[in-house]
Write a structure and sequence with these properties.
There is one protein chain. The protein has 446 residues and is of the alpha/beta class. It has 15 helices and 20 strands. Helix 5 crosses helix 9 and helix 9 packs antiparallel against helix 10.
Length: 446
């Protein structure tokens, strides 16, 4: 990297991530400027109100402007192909790289990524560690911002970070105490450009890692690390040495590590194979940082789950409704569909921005498990292409929901698991999930 006269950094992105970096730099006395590709008066005014005196630029990026800076901290949502950014000679890093520099080397750092379930596993790990009496700082992709956690760091802290592929794209040498990539399925290919690039970004979580937890049934999630790296694997198979799996104890399935039973599957707080895998991954991570089995099992039993992730609402006239709005990619949606156990038929609501994902494997699972699919949103036509007569397309979620409940009878399930981002019609998946729950409540009152 060529050093330049100015020692200023550029924070690219004036949203929540950029603001967290700005607060951190101000505390350290580091000079910086801020830029954002969005020409928004509200965003500009809000940022300049919180950070008076900081020089800002809002609008299209120019390479000669970016080249003025030694280092650019790029917010996660800004794609590598962004005009100007793709040609700059400045060093590009993430807020997670800044966090790594500030986090004490002698304090544990747990890093969790994956196409699906990373928020759930991150939350599970945090709850287990809290139950073990640790001072746990949890954040990253699921919030709060990683850099905002530093305010609460003490001599005996442990950081638990959920990391997205966007954050990992510009992160090097994370040196996590324990890291895992829970699973890999096509996602954000419109942003990364290819499955290879997406895979490479995810696996940056393992650079300099101390120990790993590995999904033994997902080859794409398994890292290339030195053979001596402490490893715990998990799989929905019979357990093995240093591997969580399933064994039968007195006629009942138990999660076990090697030959040691840990807990009955029936005691998990939510049903489904996805929850079994999530518990195994969380157990493996916490076992590697010295948490006793009894503490971990008790914490998992008490876990209540995350909003908009396989949340079952109260049934109406025997029809069950499940909100999985957080299923924003094909892998998450496929897992949700396969996990639902219904006495009757399963009706699926999908749609939004599909992010150029390959729908072929998802379609096979849906064809096997679903009675009918109701698609909505911008990319609804793609679902028609892969499912044919098994899908009916509508413009909005409201219309899709209305027709789904017309088909559903007692014992049936209506599942919202969109396999898409929400930004064509909603601000985020939370808003989409809340809207689905409002539709269910309105239907209940009819």
């Amino acid at each position: 990297m060529t050093l330049i006269a100015s020692s200023k950094r550029l924070i690219l992105g004036a949203g929540p991530t950029g603001q967290a970096v700005a607060r951190h730099f101000q505390q350290l006395g580091i000079q910086f400027e801020v830029a954002d590709t969005r020409q928004s008066d509200d965003l500009k005014t809000g940022f300049e109100r919180e950070f008076p005196g900081v020089e800002t630029y809002f609008g299209p990026l120019k390479t000669d402007y970016l080249d003025r800076f030694e280092e650019i901290i790029v917010s996660p949502g800004i794609a590598p192909t962004t005009e100007g950014l793709n040609k700059t000679t400045s060093h590009l890093i993430s807020d997670i790289q800044v966090f790594r520099r500030a986090w004490p080397e002698n304090q544990p750092l747990i890093a969790i990524t994956g196409s699906n379930a990373k928020s759930t596993v991150t939350s599970l790990v945090a709850e287990i560690l809290k139950a073990d009496g640790r001072n746990v700082l949890v954040g990253g992709n699921l919030g709060p911002q990683a850099l905002d956690l530093l305010e609460y760091q003490t001599g005996q802290s442990i950081a638990v970070l959920e990391l997205s592929s966007f954050q990992l794209e510009r992160t090097r040498g994370l040196k996590a105490t324990v890291a895992t990539c829970l699973n890999m399925s096509p996602d954000h290919l419109d942003w990364h450009g290819s499955m290879i690039a997406y895979h490479q970004a995810k696996h940056r979580i393992f650079e300099g890692v101390g120990a790993i937890v590995v999904n033994a049934e997902d080859p794409l999630s398994q890292p290339l690390v030195p053979d001596q790296t402490p490893t715990i694997k998990f799989a929905l198979q019979h357990p093995d040495f240093h591997r969580f799996g399933l064994m039968v104890v007195d006629g009942e399935d138990w999660i076990a590590l090697g030959a040691e039973p840990w807990m009955p599957v029936s005691e998990l707080p939510m049903p489904g194979r996805h929850m079994v895998q999530n518990a195994m991954a969380a157990f493996g991570i916490c076992h590697l940082v010295g948490v006793d089995k009894e503490v971990a099992v008790k914490a998992v039993r008490m876990f209540t789950g995350l909003p908009h992730r396989m949340v079952e609402l109260s049934p109406i006239r025997g029809v069950r409704f499940i909100n999985d709005s957080k299923g924003t990619n094909v892998g998450a949606s496929e897992t949700a569909v396969a996990s639902v156990e219904a006495q009757g038929d399963l009706y699926l609501l999908v749609g939004g921005e599909s992010k150029d994902a390959d729908l072929s494997q998802w379609a096979k699972t849906v064809t096997t498990h679903c009675k009918h699919v109701f698609a909505f949103g911008r990319d609804r036509g793609r679902f028609v292409d892969v499912l044919g007569e098994q899908v009916t397309a509508f413009q909005t979620l409201d219309q899709a929901f209305e027709h789904a409940v017309q088909h559903a009878n007692a014992g049936d399930v209506v599942l919202l698991s969109p396999a898409c981002a929400s930004f064509d019609q909603f601000n985020n998946y939370q808003e989409r999930g809340a809207h689905f729950e409002a539709l269910v409540e309105a239907y209940r009152e009819n």
